[in-house]
Every structure is written in structure tokens, then in C-alpha cells.
Amino acid sequence: MRQNALATPLDWIFRGLGVADNVGSWLPGLSLRLLLAWEFGEAGLEKLRGNNWFNDIADQFPFPFSVIPTEISWQMATWFEVGGALLLVAGLATRFISVSLVILTIVAWAAVHAGNGYNVCDNGWKLPLIYLVMFVPLVFQGAGRLSVDRWFANRFGDPFAGPR
């Protein structure tokens, strides 16, 4: 009798863990994608509505970005941020856009944030570091279950899975 009484709470715990496993297959990727989409989309829209200030910092861009005209760099940054935000929300081309935004973040770190210390209030490099860490699972694991990437993989096969 006592053994059955203990089995019921354990059953509930294991069921709860099963639900957590199921939610864990789609919620983390979606959460990262939505937060990064918000941040990069907001930055892209600000650039879209604002004036090109890349001329003021062009000498701080790392090579090869230092040889690209600032107007082209401005347009590329703007549209990678805006378009990347939309792709991240959908979970479409997630690895490609994540790598692209990682490169954009590294350039921003070098050109804007590197000399300002760690503190966010001083326009330091804390936020770029956080963004880079947040991109790690998206680059290496993809968008997660709740994504267009996963739908394509299920429908047409995963091109990264190798021989089956």
C-alpha cells in the first residue's frame, strides 16, 4: 500500500518532467529568437529612420569593413538588422542570419563599444557580449522545433543530418 502511495507523486513528477522536456524542445529557441529579433529589429529601424553616423566611426571599423564605403555599410547593417529580425521571428534561415548578425555584432563591438569598458551605461561591450552568447545555441543547434527551418527539415529532409 505504501509503495502505491509513493508511486503517485513520482508519476506526477515524471509527467511534469516529460511536459518540461516537450516545452524545452521549442521554447528556448523561440525565446532567444524573439528577444534577439526585438533588439536587432529596433536597432535596424532606428538606422532606417535616422542619419548615417558611420562616417563618424569609419576609422574604427576592422578590416575588411574599413574599406567598404560607409553608405554601403550603413545600408547593409540596417537591412541585416531589419531583415534578420523578421527571419529570426519566423525561424527561417536561422543559422545563416545568426552568423551574419554575429559578424555585425563583432564589428559594432570593435568600432563602437570596445573602448568604453564593460558597463552598459557607458555604451560598453556588455550587451554585445550578451548577444554573442545568445547566438551560440542558434548557430550550433538551429531555430528549434517551432520554426520554419524545422518545418522545412521535416518536409524535405535535414541537409545537415548527413547520411541516414
What does this protein look like?
α2 (27-49) packs antiparallel against α4 (70-90). The chain has helices at residues 2-24, 27-49, 54-57, 70-90, 94-113, 126-141, 148-156. Helix content is 71%, strand content 0%. It has seven helices and no strands. The chain is an all-alpha fold.
Describe the structure concisely for a colleague:
This protein is mostly helical and 164 residues long.
List how many beta strands DSSP finds: 0
Mean pLDDT reading: 90
Residues in β-strands, percent:
under 5%
Shape: elongated
Terminus-to-terminus distance: 48 Å
How do the helices and strands follow one another from N- to C-terminus?
A: HHHHHHH
Total of helices? 7
Biggest beta sheet attributes: none
How much helix is in the residues? over 70%
Report the C-alpha radius of gyration, rounded. Answer: 21 Å
Low-confidence stretches: none
Describe the structure using short key phrases.
71% helix, 164 residues, single chain, mainly alpha, 0% strand
How is the topology of this model organized?
Blueprint: H1 2-24, H2 27-49, H3 54-57, H4 70-90, H5 94-113, H6 126-141, H7 148-156
